[in-house]
Amino acid sequence: MSLMNDKSSTSLRFQLTFWFSLITLSLLSLTFSAFYFWLHADLEAEMELELAAEMEEWGHVFENSGLPGIAYEFESEMKSLGSDRCYCRFFDADLKLLAASELKNWNSLPLPPEDFLQNTPANKPYFANLLLTDQQIPVSVVYWKSSSGNIQEFGLTTDIHDSVMSRVVRASVSCILLTSLLAGAAGYLLSRRSLRGLDELNNAIDSMAKADFSYSLPDALGAEEVDRLASSFNAMQSQISTLIRELREMSSDIAHDLKSPLTRIRCAAETTLVNKHSQEEADETLAVTLEECDRLIGLLNTLLSISRLDAGIIDELAKPADLTEVINAMGELFRPAVFEQGLEFHVSTPDEQLLVKGPSSDLQRAIANLLDNARKFTNCGGCIFLSLKRNQDHAIIQVRDNGLGIQEKDLPQIFSRFYRGDHSRS
Length: 426
What we know:
- The protein has helices spanning 2-81, 114-119, 159-209, 224-274, 279-310, 323-340, 360-376, and strands at 86-91, 97-100, 125-130, 139-145, 151-157, 321-322, 344-348, 355-356, 383-391, 394-401.
- The protein is built from 7 helices and 10 strands.
């Protein structure tokens, strides 16, 4: 049993660790994905702004210095970025190439797109991405149409942009994996700390399975939920221990109550068999035997009634009991015994009928037990009061006396089944 419990506990820890790591991995992946797309868009927007500014500057250079100025700008771009990373072209309105940078690495360049020529107004940038056969990486291109109709074209490879994004991806993946591993380790430690009380609970259950009810769980085991479970377990264990103790006491009492009449029956029968008796003596022996048998039957009927009450079984066919009649009858029954003991006895009932559902025999037995206890624990000269009164839709039966009373330590147990207080006070 212990091995199975340990496996279950380990499995639960593994599941919590797995889900904690998976949730952390998912959240980090979503976060870094959002960051990746944001950074990609931001870099593209920044590149487009730089290209547009470059085109506007070329327009001013052409207005001031003409084609020589444009050629100088192209040469400066080549020295700054390299002819393998960028190219520059300058067309007139008829798409005649007037100036260009070194194009030996750019043999497959197309003419400006028709969409730009037809739909883009002057002094507005037009952006496009090209994938050329002689270039292995995409090229970002900006087209610009001046007021005079000249067309400027500037292309720049995206290798720097792609390199930045690649480093971001590698760093993100490394951070995600490392953080997930750390989250898994932290999740395992947290789950182990939170569930450590389950091992204590398993030990307590094992002890209970071996009929050892002395093992109790500590008040603080870790997580609040586990502490509540431990508290509930301790309460259940206490109730079971109390029930077993009461059952043992009941078994002892029943054995004692059965032994006395059975012993008397056996002695009477043995005496009758061993010795010769007259018919009158034999009849007396039979009468004693019948009396003891009636006591045994009464005891068994009492046990059956207790079982029936514990099961909540009510005789639906029983006639409604008149509490007024029951109380008066019990008063008349106990009055001689109470007076013989030198006690005063007062019975108070209403003038009306108070009907309740249930067998009157059970009511009589309960009231008889209360009156018998009152009589036993009230000294000579004391008083016993038996009363019945209505309280709206309820009936209240009271048995009071001015006897020894119940010790304070026994008060919490007065409704516990088969509980008995200090026998020395009887």
